[in-house]
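Here is a complete protein record:
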Amino acid sequence: MTDRPDIEFVRLSDIPRAEINAHMSDPRVGRHLPLLAGRWDQAACDAFLAAKQACWDRDGLGHWAILCDGTYAGWGGFQKEDGEWDFGLVLKPSHFGLGARIARKALAFARADDRIPYVTLLLAPSRRNLRGLDRLGARPVGEAVHEGQRFLKFQLDTA
């Protein structure tokens, strides 16, 4: 038997909206999310879920809800941005320590998908501890501006 929690990727629509609202309203979550501006409410949640579903409809891939031992731990996955597959991961504070493990599982998915020769990762400049990206094999490639916000840009080959 192992103490490692079971990580599962499921549809975001499977998660109660109240759970997503609580997650995205937590100030610890918003600290490094420059695109999370203003108040998160039911309308913001509905728009978020519609936008994430539109990615699935358009590209056949998008963001998942992440379950840890059956409990909602956050969301993440791949979204096509300017022709590149961007990997994002937004966890609940109670699951922050699982980021590397979840990222490895998602990146294994990307490596098995012929559509994804590499992924980009955009991080807020407020992020200081970037050693985990180095351990995953991501390398800095400069900066990017997305929706008027500046991000540090990394790339990780998956081929």
Q: What stands out?
A: The chain has a mean pLDDT of 90. Strands lie at 7-10, 63-68, 71-81, 84-91, 118-123, 139-146, 149-157. Helices lie at 17-25, 27-30, 42-59, 99-111, 131-136. The first helix runs from residue 17 to 25.
